[in-house]
Amino acid sequence: xxxxxxLKQLIDFxxxxxxxxxxxxxxxxISLSIEAAELLEWFQWRSNAEIKQMLxxxxxxxxxxxxxxxxxxxxxxCHDLEIDLEQAVQRKMQKNIAKYPVDKVKGRADKYNxxx
Length: 116
Prior knowledge:
The chain is an all-alpha fold. It has a domain at 4-83: Helix Hairpins (Orthogonal Bundle), CATH 1.10.287.1080. It is built from six helices and no strands. The protein is globular.
């Protein structure tokens, strides 16, 4: 859900480098998954206390870079497939509201098919 001017900057950046030829939906989805895995590495083997310390250190920028990489590939994918991300999120939230009623799931981490 980037601002229009930021999305335009991303699209222009890619177009100026003639990278659209490599950015098929499959490849963007793969790249998105790879970047999400790199984001996970930032947290791997660390306690909550260690993560909190890292967030206060100069290592925070590395986390922000990984999050930005995920956002960039997701933005390209949505742009290319003509998916309005905000609209898709709102639609999914309506499904989640129905699937996870507050009176059944509040304070629980069960999956929707595991609570009674």
